[in-house]
Amino acid sequence: MGESGSGSLAFETLVMVSKSLSMLEVGEICVVGFGENVNVAHDFDTPFSSDAGPKVFQHFGFEQKRTDVTKLVRESIELFRNARAKASGSPADLWQMELIISDGVCDSSEHEPIRRLLREALEERIMMVFVIVDDVRNKKKGESVMDLKEAKFVKNEETGRSDVRIERYLDTFPFQYYLIVSDVKELPGVLATLLRQWFAEVVDSSN
């Protein structure tokens, strides 16, 4: 996030998402920061009040050298499991949702492990949505995530040699559910659409 220059928009997005979810009374809210490690900035047991925001932001910065999305997903599943176990009388069909706010860039070697974890999460009624912060104006290279491409070596079955194939980064993005936000003003409408889709998913799974 620090390298991409999207930190400011990420903070704005986090504020709006947290306030929106709190106003909608969606249930308990947990906020974590992630990079090389995952740090809980606000746990499920603490109500998300107007005073919570400044305390949460004290835990965030962009000094970590890499972003381990696989670790984030793995540890998030554990956080949700623990929260479900603590909640007395939780219905068996309770759904939980995570919104991941980041620039969307993770190493392609992580994609398959992330997909496996996401399948595991869905089996436990945990839906993970990636909110990709795409602040092109402030990015150092001025390149949108929608334009990113990757070169991959693919074995040619006829010749036995490896050929280079260029793919759009988002075509292999491991998250089935993702949104791209380039302006925080777009967020209310985007969130409304997301929550409608989520509720529809929950209803379909319950039938």
Could you describe the 3D structure shown?
The protein has about 210 residues and is of the alpha/beta class. The chain has one domain (about 5-205): Rossmann fold. Helix content is about 35%, strand content about 20%. The chain has five helices and seven strands; from the N terminus they run αββααβαββββα. It has helices spanning about 5-25, 50-55, 70-85, 110-125, 185-205; strands spanning about 30-35, 40, 95-100, 125-135, 150-155, 160-170, 180. A three-stranded parallel beta sheet has the order 3-4-7. Strand 5 (about 150-155) and strand 6 form a beta hairpin. The longest helix has 20 residues, at about 185-205. The radius of gyration is 18 Å and the shape is globular.
| Number of helical stretches of at least 4 residues | 5
> What percent of the residues sit in helical stretches (DSSP H or I)?
25-40%
The assigned structural class equals alpha/beta
Q: Quote the beta fraction.
A: 15-25%
Largest sheet: 3 strands, parallel
